[in-house]
Amino acid sequence: MRMKEKKENLKSPKKKEALKAPKKIKILFTIVDRSKIDFYINVLQGFGVNMQTVLYGHGTAPTDLAKILGFADKGKGVILSIVPEDKISKILADYEDKYFKLRNGKGIAFTVPITSVIGVMVYNFLANNDMEVA
């Protein structure tokens, strides 16, 4: 009887937990006026984006005519965010909604895929995965 049980155990091994493919992540570039940076950072934090970097810059070089018309360059901010691919469309839809409700809420946003990340810990941090330390 024991031999029969051993054979059955060999034939039907315990099912291993299926491996999950890692979530794809992208870099979201958000370019807005400097005065609106904090607002958009708060929008991103509402979506659980855990890594954001702000770079400060200027728009196109102002010309004399632009200065006369009052289009002086106030400076731009570029927010670089690491975002899971499945949240991108929700964030962009929220951005679009906010652009129309804010006074001078104009900006531009686009994504660039991240095709590889070295190290599981780095990937888990960037993808905002829970990291368990053994």
Description:
The chain is α+β, with helices and mostly antiparallel strands. It has a single domain, classed as 2-Layer Sandwich (Alpha-Beta Plaits). 37% of the residues lie in helices and 23% in strands. It has helices at residues 2-11, 37-46, 64-69, 85-101, 120-126, and strands spanning 25-33, 52-57, 76-84, 107-113. The chain has a four-stranded antiparallel β-sheet with strand order 2-3-1-4. The longest helix is centred in the last third of the chain and has 17 residues, at 85-101. It is elongated, with a radius of gyration of 24 Å. It starts with a helix and ends in an 8-residue tail after the last helix. The mean pLDDT is 76.
List the helices and strands and how they pair.
Elements lengths: L1 H10 L13 E9 L3 H10 L5 E6 L6 H6 L6 E9 H17 L5 E7 L6 H7 L8
Antiparallel strand pairs: 1-3, 1-4, 2-3
The overall strand count is 4
- Can you give the helix content as a percent range? 25-40%
Largest sheet, in brief, is: 4 strands, antiparallel
What's the number of domains? 1
Question: What is the CATH architecture assignment?
Answer: 2-Layer Sandwich
Residue runs with pLDDT of under 50 for 5 or more positions: none
Return the CATH class: Alpha Beta
Instruction: Give the spatial strand order of the biggest sheet.
Output: 2-3-1-4
Radius of gyration: 24 Å
- CATH topology descriptor: Alpha-Beta Plaits
Q: What is the overall shape?
A: elongated
For this entry, give a set of tags.
four-stranded antiparallel beta sheet; 134 residues; 5 helices; 23% strand
